[in-house]
Amino acid sequence: MKLTLRNFLIYTILTVLFSFISKAQPRVGKSINASIGFASSSSYYIEDYGSQDQLDVMGSGLYVQAEYAWGITSWFGIKPYAATISTKIDGEQFYLDQPRYKVTTRALLVGGKARICAPIPWVAPFIEGGIGASFGKFQTFTPAVNYNKNTVLMHIPISFGLAVGRKNNFELAFSGYFHPAAKQSTGVFSAGYNFPID
Hints:
The chain is mostly beta strands. 14% of the residues lie in helices and 60% in strands.
Protein backbone atom coordinates (compact mmCIF):
# COMPACT_ATOMS: atom_id res chain seq x y z
CA MET A 1 0.00 0.00 0.00
CA LYS A 2 2.80 2.45 0.86
CA LEU A 3 4.53 1.79 -2.44
CA THR A 4 1.37 2.56 -4.41
CA LEU A 5 0.69 5.73 -2.44
CA ARG A 6 4.31 6.84 -2.89
CA ASN A 7 4.12 6.26 -6.66
CA PHE A 8 0.86 8.18 -6.83
CA LEU A 9 2.37 11.14 -4.96
CA ILE A 10 5.51 11.16 -7.13
CA TYR A 11 3.45 11.10 -10.35
CA THR A 12 1.18 13.85 -9.06
CA ILE A 13 4.09 16.09 -8.06
CA LEU A 14 5.89 15.54 -11.37
CA THR A 15 2.70 16.23 -13.36
CA VAL A 16 2.05 19.49 -11.52
CA LEU A 17 5.70 20.53 -11.77
CA PHE A 18 6.02 19.88 -15.51
CA SER A 19 2.69 21.53 -16.32
CA PHE A 20 3.84 24.62 -14.39
CA ILE A 21 7.17 24.69 -16.21
CA SER A 22 5.62 24.20 -19.65
CA LYS A 23 3.35 27.21 -19.14
CA ALA A 24 6.23 29.41 -18.03
CA GLN A 25 8.74 28.58 -20.76
CA PRO A 26 9.99 31.39 -23.01
CA ARG A 27 7.70 32.04 -25.93
CA VAL A 28 7.76 29.85 -29.03
CA GLY A 29 6.77 31.95 -32.05
CA LYS A 30 7.50 35.42 -33.35
CA SER A 31 7.97 38.62 -31.40
CA ILE A 32 9.60 42.04 -31.55
CA ASN A 33 12.14 42.85 -28.85
CA ALA A 34 12.99 46.49 -28.10
CA SER A 35 15.99 47.26 -25.86
CA ILE A 36 17.73 50.35 -24.55
CA GLY A 37 20.84 50.60 -22.47
CA PHE A 38 24.23 52.00 -21.53
CA ALA A 39 27.24 51.38 -23.82
CA SER A 40 30.97 51.69 -23.16
CA SER A 41 33.68 51.39 -25.85
CA SER A 42 37.19 50.25 -25.01
CA SER A 43 40.38 49.10 -26.69
CA TYR A 44 41.26 45.43 -27.02
CA TYR A 45 44.51 46.07 -25.18
CA ILE A 46 45.43 47.07 -21.63
CA GLU A 47 47.94 49.87 -22.11
CA ASP A 48 49.77 52.60 -20.25
CA TYR A 49 47.92 55.83 -21.02
CA GLY A 50 50.39 58.07 -19.22
CA SER A 51 48.63 60.78 -17.25
CA GLN A 52 45.20 59.59 -18.44
CA ASP A 53 43.18 57.07 -16.47
CA GLN A 54 41.83 54.13 -18.47
CA LEU A 55 38.25 55.22 -17.72
CA ASP A 56 38.98 58.60 -19.36
CA VAL A 57 39.92 56.80 -22.59
CA MET A 58 36.75 54.70 -22.76
CA GLY A 59 33.79 56.19 -24.60
CA SER A 60 30.33 55.93 -23.05
CA GLY A 61 26.86 56.56 -24.39
CA LEU A 62 23.54 55.18 -25.59
CA TYR A 63 22.55 51.82 -27.04
CA VAL A 64 19.19 51.11 -28.74
CA GLN A 65 18.22 47.81 -30.40
CA ALA A 66 15.25 46.22 -32.16
CA GLU A 67 15.09 42.48 -32.84
CA TYR A 68 12.73 40.23 -34.75
CA ALA A 69 12.79 37.14 -32.55
CA TRP A 70 11.72 33.78 -33.89
CA GLY A 71 11.46 31.19 -31.10
CA ILE A 72 11.81 27.84 -32.85
CA THR A 73 11.59 25.88 -29.59
CA SER A 74 11.34 26.92 -25.94
CA TRP A 75 15.15 26.78 -25.67
CA PHE A 76 16.38 27.91 -29.13
CA GLY A 77 15.65 30.94 -31.31
CA ILE A 78 16.99 33.06 -34.18
CA LYS A 79 17.07 36.86 -33.97
CA PRO A 80 17.88 39.26 -36.83
CA TYR A 81 18.56 42.68 -35.31
CA ALA A 82 19.32 46.35 -35.93
CA ALA A 83 20.98 48.49 -33.28
CA THR A 84 22.70 51.83 -32.81
CA ILE A 85 25.66 52.55 -30.58
CA SER A 86 26.80 56.09 -29.90
CA THR A 87 29.70 56.53 -27.47
CA LYS A 88 31.95 59.51 -26.82
CA ILE A 89 34.48 60.54 -24.21
CA ASP A 90 33.43 62.74 -21.32
CA GLY A 91 34.75 66.26 -21.75
CA GLU A 92 37.71 67.39 -23.82
CA GLN A 93 40.59 67.47 -21.39
CA PHE A 94 43.97 68.36 -22.81
CA TYR A 95 47.25 66.91 -21.64
CA LEU A 96 50.46 68.88 -22.21
CA ASP A 97 52.80 65.91 -22.30
CA GLN A 98 50.78 63.50 -24.49
CA PRO A 99 47.93 63.21 -27.02
CA ARG A 100 44.30 62.77 -25.92
CA TYR A 101 43.69 59.02 -26.17
CA LYS A 102 40.12 57.85 -26.78
CA VAL A 103 37.96 54.97 -27.99
CA THR A 104 34.59 55.95 -29.49
CA THR A 105 31.91 54.39 -31.68
CA ARG A 106 29.00 55.87 -33.64
CA ALA A 107 27.46 53.12 -35.71
CA LEU A 108 24.40 51.31 -37.00
CA LEU A 109 24.69 47.56 -36.46
CA VAL A 110 22.74 44.88 -38.36
CA GLY A 111 23.10 41.13 -38.18
CA GLY A 112 21.77 37.88 -36.84
CA LYS A 113 22.07 36.04 -33.54
CA ALA A 114 21.13 32.61 -32.26
CA ARG A 115 19.85 32.24 -28.70
CA ILE A 116 20.03 29.29 -26.36
CA CYS A 117 17.75 29.70 -23.36
CA ALA A 118 17.07 27.59 -20.28
CA PRO A 119 13.24 27.36 -20.15
CA ILE A 120 12.83 28.09 -16.45
CA PRO A 121 9.72 29.76 -14.99
CA TRP A 122 9.94 33.46 -14.14
CA VAL A 123 13.74 33.74 -14.62
CA ALA A 124 15.17 32.12 -17.78
CA PRO A 125 18.92 32.58 -18.37
CA PHE A 126 20.12 32.85 -21.98
CA ILE A 127 23.24 33.18 -24.09
CA GLU A 128 23.39 34.61 -27.62
CA GLY A 129 26.03 34.77 -30.32
CA GLY A 130 26.17 35.72 -33.97
CA ILE A 131 27.74 37.92 -36.62
CA GLY A 132 26.90 41.26 -38.20
CA ALA A 133 28.00 44.39 -40.01
CA SER A 134 28.56 47.85 -38.52
CA PHE A 135 28.15 51.05 -40.54
CA GLY A 136 29.64 54.17 -38.99
CA LYS A 137 32.63 55.92 -37.43
CA PHE A 138 35.11 54.03 -35.28
CA GLN A 139 37.97 55.70 -33.45
CA THR A 140 40.56 53.78 -31.46
CA PHE A 141 43.42 56.11 -30.55
CA THR A 142 45.76 54.58 -27.98
CA PRO A 143 49.55 54.26 -27.65
CA ALA A 144 49.42 51.02 -29.71
CA VAL A 145 46.50 51.67 -32.11
CA ASN A 146 45.58 54.60 -34.34
CA TYR A 147 42.34 53.70 -36.13
CA ASN A 148 39.94 56.44 -37.23
CA LYS A 149 37.58 55.61 -40.11
CA ASN A 150 34.06 55.98 -41.41
CA THR A 151 33.56 52.50 -42.78
CA VAL A 152 31.71 49.19 -42.73
CA LEU A 153 33.15 46.61 -40.33
CA MET A 154 32.29 43.09 -39.29
CA HIS A 155 31.31 42.66 -35.65
CA ILE A 156 30.72 39.69 -33.37
CA PRO A 157 27.89 40.04 -30.81
CA ILE A 158 27.81 37.97 -27.62
CA SER A 159 25.15 38.34 -24.90
CA PHE A 160 24.34 36.85 -21.50
CA GLY A 161 21.11 37.67 -19.76
CA LEU A 162 17.85 36.81 -18.07
CA ALA A 163 14.32 36.73 -19.47
CA VAL A 164 12.15 37.52 -16.45
CA GLY A 165 8.46 37.80 -15.63
CA ARG A 166 5.46 35.50 -15.74
CA LYS A 167 5.79 35.12 -19.53
CA ASN A 168 9.53 35.90 -19.65
CA ASN A 169 8.78 39.13 -21.57
CA PHE A 170 11.26 41.39 -19.76
CA GLU A 171 14.97 41.03 -20.48
CA LEU A 172 18.12 42.18 -18.72
CA ALA A 173 21.37 41.55 -20.60
CA PHE A 174 25.10 42.17 -20.72
CA SER A 175 26.33 42.26 -24.32
CA GLY A 176 29.62 42.68 -26.09
CA TYR A 177 30.08 43.84 -29.68
CA PHE A 178 33.60 43.08 -30.88
CA HIS A 179 35.10 44.95 -33.87
CA PRO A 180 38.39 43.16 -34.68
CA ALA A 181 39.41 45.56 -37.48
CA ALA A 182 39.12 48.63 -35.21
CA LYS A 183 40.72 46.80 -32.24
CA GLN A 184 37.82 47.83 -30.02
CA SER A 185 34.83 46.34 -28.26
CA THR A 186 31.67 47.84 -26.86
CA GLY A 187 30.14 46.52 -23.67
CA VAL A 188 26.42 47.07 -23.14
CA PHE A 189 24.03 46.73 -20.21
CA SER A 190 20.45 46.83 -21.50
CA ALA A 191 16.83 46.27 -20.54
CA GLY A 192 14.20 45.22 -23.03
CA TYR A 193 10.66 43.99 -23.58
CA ASN A 194 9.27 41.34 -25.97
CA PHE A 195 6.08 42.19 -27.86
CA PRO A 196 4.47 38.97 -29.21
CA ILE A 197 3.20 39.30 -32.79
CA ASP A 198 1.59 35.89 -33.33
